[in-house]
Amino acid sequence: MDFKAMEGKWQKAWWKAGINDAEVDTSKPKYYLIFAYPGVSGPQHVGHMRGYTYSDVITRYKRMKGFSVLFPAGFHATGIAPVAYAKKIRDGDKQTIDYMKKNGVPEDAIGSFKDYKKFLSYWYKAYENDYWRRFGFLIDYRRLTSTLGAGYQKFIQWQFRKLNEANLLIQKDNYSAFCPNDGPIAVDASETDIKCGGKAEKLEFTLLKFKMGDEFVVAATLRPETVYGQTNMWVRPDIDYVRARVGKETWVISRECADNLKYQDRDIEVLGTVKGEELVGKKCLAPGVEREIPILPSSFPDPAVGTGLVTSVPSDAPFDYIALEDLKRTNPELVKGIELIPIIKSRGYGDFPAKEICEQMNIRSQNEAEKLEEATKEIYKVGFHTGRMITGPYEGKRVVEAKDLVRDDLIRDGKADSMWSFSEPVVCRCGEHVVIKKFNDQWFIKYSDRELTDKAKDYAEGMDIVPEGYKEEMPGVLDWFEDRPCARQGSWLGTKFPLDDGWIVEPISDSTLYPMYYIVSLYENNGAIKPEEMTDEFFNYVYLGIGKPKRPEWERVRKDFEYWYPLDVNLGGKEHKTVHFPVFLMNHVAVLPGVLWPRGLFVHWWVTGTAGKISKSKGGAEPIPQAIKRYSVDAMRTYYCHVAQSSVDVAWDPDLVFTYKEALRRNYLLAESLLEAPDARSPVDEWVKYNFNQRLEKATLALDDYDMRTAADEIVYGISRDLQWYKRRGGGNRKLVKALVGKWIRMWAPFAPHMAEEAWHALLKEKGLVSVAEWPSLFDSEADASVNSGEDLVQRILGDIRDIEKIRGAKAKKVMVYVAAPWKWLALGHVRNANGNFGDAMKNASSDPKLSDHKKLLSTLIKRLNSKMNWYRDKKEVDEFVVLNSATHFLSEELDAKVELFHEDKPGEDPGHKAGAALPLYPGIHVA
RNA sequence: GCGGGGGUGCCGGAGCUCGGAAAACGGGCAGGGCUUAGGACCCUGUGACUUAGUGUCUACGCGUGUUCGAAUCACGUCCCCCGCACCA
Asked: Which nucleotide lies at the shortest CA–C1' distance from A81?
């Protein structure tokens, strides 16, 4: 089977027929689904295809169920990623370039990426043509849109004016990264604006003021509650600090700290420098404990973090503990008399967690910075969450509470202050140290708004949210979600913030209402509506029905919108659970009337590499064009749907994908061979119809519930199994087979659409496209579960005979089967009625006149039946003789032996005395 | 700590809503067949013991309880994963 040829052939047919173009059709119900559009950031890998595949499978199914489907897509280009890539190419970043090459990007294209616009247009095309179309996604490509498009930006501005009308835009203080030369900049992993420090976190430090004569030596800490364990202070002897006037006080701090404070609204003036070594050996008064402690030399404090001075709590801070140990070796005189002070009791640790973990991790010196970081994190986490104070005024209190209490006390008493600082040095591209600046006019969307939150929570309760667990989380997420900065200053790509010059709408806030825009983008893309025309008047009319249409086209858009809205499902990866989905929901609630709010959310988990999430840097991500070639699109699609539930991470496993390819091929060949079988009525026609119906029904219900896995399981494996058995049993009723295969192939279509089309045409000689065929309906069938009792009986007998063959160590030449006498079914009836109670069963059976001839056998029989009570519970009575009689031919072929069938009470011959052993559904068997 | 989700064969995982011979379905492994060079296909087996089958025992993290009957319900307990933010 040539998957590759099939893919090209049928995709072409789909595009030609335009079955992916969404059209308003008022005679049909509508279905509107989007996936969270991808951030445009270079090549995608096999992991990305999971969610897209779900989207396509769902919408293909809905289309076959008679819905008019809108399945659009777009590109999220705002933010900093495209600029970051352009920069990496300009810088000749080898890893990035190699990754592009490995994904088949031509060299000259890579070169052009120096211009972020070229980068974007290349990937718009690649996502569409190399990924989405190649996977056969029936996306309405006429509606493709980018968040940088002119019309889209008009739409975002309209959205923000709506938010403003709803009083949800506010300005307030915010601390964010700032370069004294270049202004606001981004500190993120892509390190677009900065030279180093992409991983830095923004943290609020407590500044502890240590009195030393008339001035204060100031140390920064994240753990004010540990002041009770202070033994000394650490200073870097090799650097220069500054003496600065802060308000009315004089502080000794690092130069970088002084800079930082300047930007945080402090009245500060640098007076002079202080050499670090001058401080060594001096004593200062530790705040909180009011004890004199020495200032000691160390190498780990960083002048760019906090104040460049660190208070030492060796009981609970691994860095401090190790630095002390170092000193003990090099300069024991300095540390004489310093003892660890127990301050906090945490789960799993004794009095001195820092000491314990250093010993555990075998950390020997301050130079092992990475391990020390890890140890610190661990101790911090455990201490914060499980620790209790065992000293000081808050003894007995949990650390999580004590932390704030201690800090507030110290600040109130003038012994401490606070400051924002990065967790590691951040240097701007210009070479300047990045500071954290206090802005007092940062724009926020007021997601904390009580009314908005409550409305969203109420509404979410009635939404279709998959999986159920996320639905449970949603109220918590909505409560927890606070005001969020929605605009930025600096080198970001995005829409101009309409209320304030110089601000750019940030990339989460411009991606909340966009399903609305796909209605308009169709007309923007075909030129019917120009971006200049997209005024507030336009949007108010088409979305809200306010005002009058200026042109007939507006009415057209309005009609479309009324037809397609609200959105049925927004589908996205689990990374969106705590940001995108809540803001998506809340923005809808904030600016639109309730009837337009989205009906459902679908969250799926990831495809991971063997070691964690597939990432570009670590490699291991299989490029998509290569994967398509190796596995075939249909196999990959089936793999995504079947390999695990959507709410579970799956590890990418190439061997497993191959097994799906083979399963598909097997099914195709099975369909083919069934159609070729000679026409014959078979004893299993009713059985196969009944079971097909069961599976069809189960798959249909599963798809209605967005459970692609169960559906794929029934379709790819379940039906396949039944049909194999049907074939093995001699099934070949031409008319029935054609109907079976016809229905089955239609069920393939959402999952393996190319193979389905191929089979639809090549095997069934159908004319139209199966992708737009009707989803199959159930067979008319009178059969009930008793057909399975019969077929189970045949399978069980076959198995039992095989067991016996094995035990006797010889193949059967002749098999005699004895079907239980009718009166044994009567006895079974009594056992059932007694529901497991042997005495009752026995009593009723022995008083049954119809059983009076068999009194002496009753006791053993009832005992045996009773022990199988649970098994018999839901078994239907079948005429075993009729069933087996129709299967003797089959059995003798399977076993290559003569098979004879008898009634227990008319055994004919019974050399093994097996007739009497027969029970209902357990015939006696003699093998010769 | 808070919130959410979990602990079932060699592995991935069904089953839990609504209690009724646990292990569906896939994978792996083993034996056989069939052909052969296809990542094929078809049988059969895969907790232990036992046996001319329709038998016994052990098993759903651990412990209790409710029940004729518990992976499923209840209580307790241990462990694991994810999120805890301004990052898309």
From this structure: B88
- Strand B within 7 A of A213 CB: no
Q: Between the CA of residue A651 and those of A55, A536, A605, A632, A644, what are the distances in Å? A: 20, 47, 11, 19, 10
Q: How far apart are the first and last CA of chain A?
A: 46
Residue A64 pLDDT class (50, 70, 90 cuts): very high
A514 to each of A50, A151, A443, A497, how far by Cα in Å?
A: 22, 12, 21, 17
What the block records as the tokens of A743 is 């229905």
Nucleotides of B under 7 A from a protein CB: 1, 3-6, 12-14, 20-21, 24-28, 39-45, 51-56, 68, 82-88
- Give just the sign of the alpha carbon dihedral A828, A833, A839, A840: negative
φ, ψ of residue A821 to 5 degrees: the values are -70, 150
**Distance (Å, rounded) from C-alpha A724 to C-alpha A719?**
8
Q: Could you tell me which of A773, A336, A539 has the C-alpha nearest to residue A531?
A: A539
Is residue A399 over pLDDT 90? no
Could you tell me the pLDDT band of residue A788, with boundaries at 50, 70 and 90? confident
Is the peptide bond prior to A467 cis by the omega test (within 30 degrees of 0)? yes
DSSP percent split of chain A into helix, strand, coil, nearest 5 = 50, 20, 35
Q: How far apart are CA A317 and CA A14, in angstroms?
A: 64
Backbone Cα Rg of chain A = 37
Whether ipTM exceeds 0.90: yes
Angle formed at CA A559 by CA A557 and CA A561, multiple of 5 degrees:
70
